[in-house]
Each structure stands twice: as C-alpha cells, then as structure tokens.
Amino acid sequence: MSESEKGRVTGINYLKVLIFTLVGLIAFQSCSYLTSNKDNKQLFSFLSGQEQNPKEPINYQFNDGIMSKSISVRSVLKNFIAIEQEEGVGARVRRSIGTMKMRRFPPFLMLDDFFVKPPAGFPDHPHHGQETITYNLKGMIAHEDFTGSKGVLFPGDLQFMTAGKGIVHSEIPVSLEDGSASNGLQLWVDLPAELKNCEPRYRDLRKKQTPEVKVNDNLTVRVISGKSYGVDSVQELAYTPVHFYHFITSKKGTEFAQEFPKDFNVFFYILKGSLAVNDQVFPEHSAVFFDTDGEGVAGTSVSDDAEFVLIGGKILDQEVLQHGPFVETSRERMIDVFRNYQYGMNGFENAHSWDSKIAGGISEAEARKLYKE
Ligand SMILES: *[C@@H]1O[C@H](CO)[C@@H](O)[C@H](O)[C@H]1NC(C)=O
C-alpha cells in the first residue's frame, strides 16, 4: 500500500469514527436511554390495572394438534399502529418496538418492518451486546461482516446474528431485476448480561428448514422457533429464548391459539389484514402487546388473508442502556464499549480496517452467485 493510499484509508477510518460518534451523540441527546426493566414492569402492571383488581382468567378451548385443551389467555396491555416513516431515498420503515410508544418490551429492543431498495441500505455499521433476527419476506437482502461471513436471504429466509462483544456488518438490499423493494422484519433482542461479551456468531435459517403446520383449510403456521399445534421448530437459534411464529390465515373468522411460557413477554405484529383478540379489533400494521396474566394468546381473523408474526421472549431482569446499536447494562460498561470501538480492541480489532464489498450495491446475478458459494 502506498503512503497516499494509507493516508486515504486512515482518513476514511477517522471519518467512520467521527460519523459514529456524531450519530451516538444525537441518539444520546434525543432520548434518555437509561431506564430499567423494573420501571417497565411497574408501568405494565399500572397499565393493565393488575395491582388494583386482579382479573378472572379467560379460558380458551382449542385443539393443539395432539389433544383438545383449555388455556387461560393473556389480556392486551397496549396496542398501536406502527407508522410508516421515510428513512432517506428508497427506504421506508414501520417501527413499533423502539419508539416513544413502546421504548422496549424486554427482551425486545426494536422491531422494524422495512421496505428498502438500492441505493438505500444499511452499510458498514457496528453492534454490541444484542442479537438481531432478520426475517426476509420479499426480495433479497445481502449481508457481510468483518469476520468474513456473508450470504443472501431469499423470501422466507431468516438470519440470527449475535453481536456479542462486537461486530461490524453491512446489510444491503439486492438490486432486483424487476426494480422492486425488499421487505422484511428486523427484531433486536437483548443479550443476558453474562453473554454480552461472547464471540459474535451467525446462523442463516432457510425457509425450507422451518416447518409449516397446516392446522386446517384456513390456517397455516410457520414454526420458526418454538412449538405450535404439536410441531417443533428445528433448533434454538438465539441465546435469549425467543419463540417466533408466522400465522397465515385464508378465510375471515379463522380462530388461532398459541401457548407461551409464563416468563415470556408476548406480542404480535400484523403484516396483512386485521385480527380480533379478546373482543378488540386490530387493523393492519398493529403491534399488540400482552400482559403475562395467562398461558397463551388466542384470537380470530376478521379479514380474508390475514397474516401476522406472533413472538415471545424470555423476560430479562437487567438494566438496559442503549446507545444506538450498542446495548449494555451500565454506563461504565458502555464507556468500555465505546473505547473498544474507537481504538479497535476487545473484539473490534478489524472495525476500522475492514470495508464490506457489498456496501456499494449488489446485483441480482451477483447475489445468486454468492448464494451458491
Ligand atoms: C374455513 O373457511 C370456510 C369459509 O369461511 C368455512 O366454511 C370453514 O368452516 C372453515 N374451516 C375451518 C376449519 O375453520
């Protein structure tokens, strides 16, 4: 490398650190991120009126695929429609968790329903202390990270990424031949405090690896993680236990039910159509959060072709300090993470010398070739 090239590379690195610091400062200024799960719990019990008058459980009878059983269903804690926002040229995002309406829902930190096409994308950026689950619904998303792993998600594919002590990666929508946008969900899950500094890892889960249960003529469930109507998913994919189901209904009036462990927080997000739960109707793009007062959730579709993701995660009882894509449990630990990133150490050794190949864009032909590699 010539001196001038070295100068250029160092220049880019300073620019990266500067940009990241600025983004971080803005995030820090605009939100007071230091709130604890304990605050959330109090807020939740206040919202649901738990302390004032304990509710009688509502029982719901359903056939779980093996036998007919009765479960008590959880009551709705909070709901709202995720509003679409422009995120620069070529990107629109509906964010539900991670907004002022629902800052976080432990262990979940963020949920985005994204529509993105080139030149928009999420080029080289760091993460620490959390896991991300990307569920690609339409189009193709290419990814590459500084450990050397890379790949492409096709419709129905998922990626589970554990940032652990640190990762820098790039997520870029493929330039599709028909010019359409890619659409998917990205869910951020907190990591237990003792795993914050684990080695980063990636698992791609292909559509064909996720079993689909045809419950009846009008209901199909894709079991991404967990167990639904007697069918188990292939493997555990995240360090923090997460159950993730995609419900697909065809006819209006289709009933559904799903059990969850007691110590899980549960919510659903409507991709298409509308649903009724406990006599309340929720329109398209609603995010609906449940109390922990029952063994599961149950409801009915109120439009034809309704689809939603139903997700639960084990509640983590720990502080959450979030600073952009860095998640820690205390200010002291966050300062260490910033220092590690800034000086390229303790997991961030490659952070400033690495540049992804896909950040400048990737064609459909290149993506298909990359998938075969
Ligand atoms: C499926 O939908 C059709 C049309 O609404 C209905 O007649 C049928 O009973 C439904 N089947 C089940 C199992 O819900």
Automatic annotation (TrEMBL):
Regions that span the bilayer: 12-35
Residues in Pirin C-terminal domain copies: 248-346
Signal sequence annotation: none
PROSITE patterns: PROKAR_LIPOPROTEIN
InterPro entries, sorted: Pirin, Pirin_C_dom, Pirin_N_dom, RmlC-like_jellyroll, RmlC_Cupin_sf
Domain of life: Eukaryota
Record keywords: Membrane, Transmembrane, Transmembrane helix
Domain Pirin N-terminal: 91-189
Matching PANTHER family: PIRIN, PIRIN-RELATED
Protein family membership: Belongs to the pirin family.
UniProt-recorded name of the protein: ZYRO0C07722p
Organism listed in the record: Zygosaccharomyces rouxii (strain ATCC 2623 / CBS 732 / NBRC 1130 / NCYC 568 / NRRL Y-229)
